[in-house]
Design brief:
Layout: H1 2-20, H2 22-56, H3 58-72, E1 84-90, H4 95-108, E2 114-118, H5 124-130, E3 136-143, H6 155-166, E4 179-186, H7 196-207, E5 211-212, E6 217-220, H8 231-250, H9 274-281, H10 285-290, H11 299-302, H12 322-330, H13 350-369, E7 373-375, E8 379-382, H14 385-391, H15 398-403, E9 410-414, H16 445-461, H17 471-477, E10 482-485, H18 497-506, E11 510-515, H19 520-525, E12 531-535, H20 541-548, H21 555-567, E13 572-579, H22 588-598, E14 602-607, H23 627-640, E15 644-650, E16 655-660, E17 664-665, E18 668-669, E19 672-673, H24 675-687, E20 700-701
Parallel strand pairs: 1-2, 1-3, 3-4, 4-5, 4-6, 9-10, 10-11, 11-12, 12-13, 13-14
Antiparallel strand pairs: 7-8, 8-9, 14-16, 15-16, 17-18, 19-20
Helix pairs in contact: 4-8, 6-7, 12-13, 16-18, 21-22, 22-23
Biased composition (Acidic residues): 290-303
Protein name: S-adenosyl-L-methionine-dependent tRNA 4-demethylwyosine synthase TYW1
Domain Radical SAM core: 403-647
Length: 735
């Protein structure tokens, strides 16, 4: 017992002593840890300095090059920093092609694989998206041709880049991971267009989140102004810098900047001297002093070549009046988009007129950036992405699956840019004007159709010879067979809509007209169209107010009257339902009641498409339903409506079709359209002065097996080859 007590007493004394001196113990431990950190830091820094010294030592560099194949292709490297180089050239006289071959030979000498491509032989969407994860370096050698345009062989390549860079439907990170360098070829004697092709290409790549490995360089054919005496010397100087930069990348050196430099100002992470920064960029001190602007554009370029230019500095004096100008725009007091014709503003003050022209000018710029071709003062046309897809044999839109249209022969247009709603899911981001009545200077139907066809055909012609485009389909696409009057706005607002529809039919063009159910009388007066759509975006008054945000105070009564007017039509009618998760997907029973009111032939149910962030909408990806959720909604709706059945599916548009049972003949669905028969019926109707009527059943056609719901193809035409982009934002335009 005494021994135990002695042991406990000793142990207790030790514990008390440790507790009393605990602060000294803590200090000793902290000092030991700090000393260990300092030693590790010093060791690492010493190794780093030795490595930098060996890189700067010619003898050491030479030895390393011998071991690593000139510093670019280590045979047993654990990580490959540069897999190869791909050179794209756009040449008119052969100079860019010659430079591309010379650069390729120089890259081969570094033991790196290299490929050379003519831009005219490449599909930009395919070839560029592949390079986002390939670890290749892409080099673009492009000449500037007539009026600042790229060479003919590079026209489509550059056109696609421009549209992708300015189209909000294409993700801004589409080319993230692609590393590139640009060398432009031009002649400074043409001051207004000097090297514009190279500058624009560089800017568009940057806008799509591609990363520059060095500053863009420009070769000058004008020997008097060329930095090195000739364009060949300019190229040789740039090539030497490029090869140096390439070798540094092969060694795994970190990129010198974030790729977001503007006007020569590098915002690299970490502190570095001006000399080292210039060295890493491959930019000489002389070049730095010139402060080359990577994004310089002219007002003509940004405004799409318009003649009417508003000086930005002048806006400061009139910002206080912008609210008043917006009211004018909402009331629809326009007469010309982007032009100086303001006959619709007679009697207004000069300030109001100028402000209105400014806003319309902005509208034109927004439309041009979205790929629109504006017609006259209130119409527009655009090339649908499904038209481009079918030209390449990559499948058509849901109308091809549901109704048999040829997507590559479809023109997407509108005779009225204005709309009476401001829907939360509008994929135009409300860049178009809104109004409740027609107050614009009116263009005649003949002018609208003529310019729409010309603009559409000109856009189609740009695809001639483009890699992947099927020649036979390109020939067919020049002859428009269908018109989707759904581009933007409210087509039925156009006072001469019946005359415009008649003109389309006279040209053998079928008509798919979409209305937002706010103009019931116009629906009643509408002459037969191939297929008439009504957008039914919500099933209750409150949800319609929240989703469509209509301008009319009596919007709900107008909505119900429009559905009743639709029920009076004898030709094909369609309800278009857009499902927005957390907004309207739980209103199945109320939708069924509205369907009983309008008695449509078909019901299209589509998940909302997320169109990017916008101050005009609070929608996010969380509001986009999965295809399975859309299918569940459709099946529940079909259960409540026994006279309808699920007929077709277009999985890659997240869309399904309910059809009335009267279109199921002898067990076969007949949702497709006999377009030839429709044109015959329309001609008979017009010749009879309207007394000869006809019904939807008279021009229906059998739906092929691949388009039916439940088919293995899920709505994709087996004659085409489905293209799926890997890990990239989808282009989700369409009518």
């Amino acid at each position: 017992l005494d021994v135990s007590m002695d042991s406990w007493s000793y142990f207790h004394t030790c514990l008390v002593s440790i507790w009393q001196h605990r602060f000294y113990i803590y200090s000793a431990v902290a000092f030991g840890i700090s000393l260990w950190v300092v030693v590790q830091f010093a060791t690492t820094r010493t190794k780093r300095k030795k490595g930098e010294k060996s890189h700067g030592n010619p003898a050491s560099s030479e030895g390393a090059a011998d071991k690593l194949g000139n510093g670019c292709a280590p045979p047993q490297a654990q990580e490959v920093h540069v897999a190869g180089v791909k050179i794209f050239y756009g040449s008119q006289t052969g100079t860019a092609r010659r430079f591309a071959k010379a650069l390729a030979e120089a890259v081969i000498s570094l033991n790196l694989p290299v490929e050379v491509f003519n831009m005219g032989d490449c599909d930009p969407e395919d070839c560029l998206s592949e390079e986002t994860s390939s670890r290749n370096i892409c080099v673009f050698l492009v000449a500037t041709y007539t009026e600042g345009q790229p060479p003919e062989s590079a026209a489509w390549f550059c056109k696609w880049l421009e549209e992708a860079a300015h189209d909000f439907r294409v993700g801004k990170s589409f080319l993230q991971g692609l590393r590139y360098a640009v060398f432009g070829l031009g002649n400074s004697a043409y001051v207004d267009h000097y090297n514009t092709a190279g500058r624009r290409l560089d800017r568009w790549l940057w806008m799509l989140s591609a990363s520059r490995i060095m500053t863009r360089a420009e070769g000058d054919c004008n020997v008097a102004q060329s930095k090195h005496g000739s364009i060949e010397a300019d190229f040789e100087a740039w090539k030497a810098k490029f090869l140096t930069r390439l070798q540094a990348l092969c060694r795994g050196e970190k990129k010198p900047c974030s790729g977001k430099c503007k006007k020569g100002k590098c915002k690299s992470a970490g502190k570095q001297s001006k000399e080292s920064s210039d060295h890493e960029h491959g930019v000489s001190e002389h070049e730095n002093t010139e402060a080359e602007e990577l994004f310089e554009t002219s007002s003509e370029e940004e405004a799409g070549g318009t003649n009417s230019v508003i000086d930005v500095e002048d806006l400061g004096n009139i910002m206080g009046h912008m609210k008043k100008a917006k009211v004018l725009l909402l009331e629809g007091l326009g007469s010309a988009v982007g032009g100086a014709v303001t006959s619709g503003l007679v009697g207004k003050s000069s300030t109001e007129t100028m402000l209105f022209v400014i806003l319309l000018h902005c509208l034109k710029i927004c439309a041009l950036f979205s790929g629109y071709k504006l017609i006259g003062s209130h119409s527009g046309v655009k090339l649908c992405r499904w038209t481009k897809s079918m030209l390449r044999g990559r499948g058509g839109c849901y109308k091809h699956t549901f109704y048999g249209i040829e997507s590559h022969r479809c023109m997407e247009a509108t005779p009225s840019l204005a709309c009476a709603n401001k829907c939360v899911f509008c994929w135009r981001h409300h860049t178009n004007p809104v109004g409740t009545e027609w107050r614009w200077k009116m263009d005649q139907p003949e002018l609208i159709l003529q310019e729409a066809l010309e603009n559409h055909q000109n856009m189609i012609k740009q695809f001639k010879g483009v890699s992947g485009v099927k020649a036979a389909r390109w020939e067919e696409a020049l002859a428009v067979k269908h018109c989707a009057l759904s581009l933007v706005g409210e087509p039925i607002m156009y006072p001469h809509i019946n005359g415009f529809v008649r003109l389309l039919h006279q040209h053998g063009i079928s008509t798919f007209l979409v209305t937002n159910a706010q103009f019931p009388e116009e629906i009643r007066r509408l002459e037969p169209v191939t297929q008439l759509y009504v957008s039914v975006d919500a099933s209750t008054k409150e949800s319609l107010r929240r989703i469509d945000r209509p301008l009319f105070k009596d919007f709900w009564q107008r909505f119900l009257d429009s559905l009743k007017a639709l029920a009076e039509k004898q030709q094909r009618t369609v309800y278009r339902l857009t499902l927005v998760k957390a907004w309207n997907v739980d209103e199945v029973k109320a939708y069924a009641d509205l369907i009983s009111l309008g008695k449509p032939d078909f019901i299209e149910v589509k998940g909302v498409t997320y169109c990017g962030e916008s101050s005009a909408s609070s929608l996010t990806m969380a509001n986009v339903p999965w295809h399975g959720e859309v299918l569940g909604f459709v099946q529940e709706l079909a259960r409540l409506l026994p006279e309808y059945g699920v007929a077709c599916e277009h999985e890659h548009s997240n869309c399904l079709l309910l059809a009335h049972r009267k279109f199921q003949v002898d067990g076969e669905w007949r949702t497709w359209i006999d377009y030839g028969r429709f044109q015959e019926l329309v001609r008979e109707h017009q010749r009879s002065g309207g007394s000869r009527t006809f019904t939807a059943a008279e021009y229906s056609a059998r739906t092929p097996a691949w388009a039916l719901f439940g088919a293995r193809e899920r709505g994709f035409d087996p004659l085409d080859v489905r293209f799926q982009r890997k890990n990239k934002a989808r282009d989700i335009s369409g009518c």
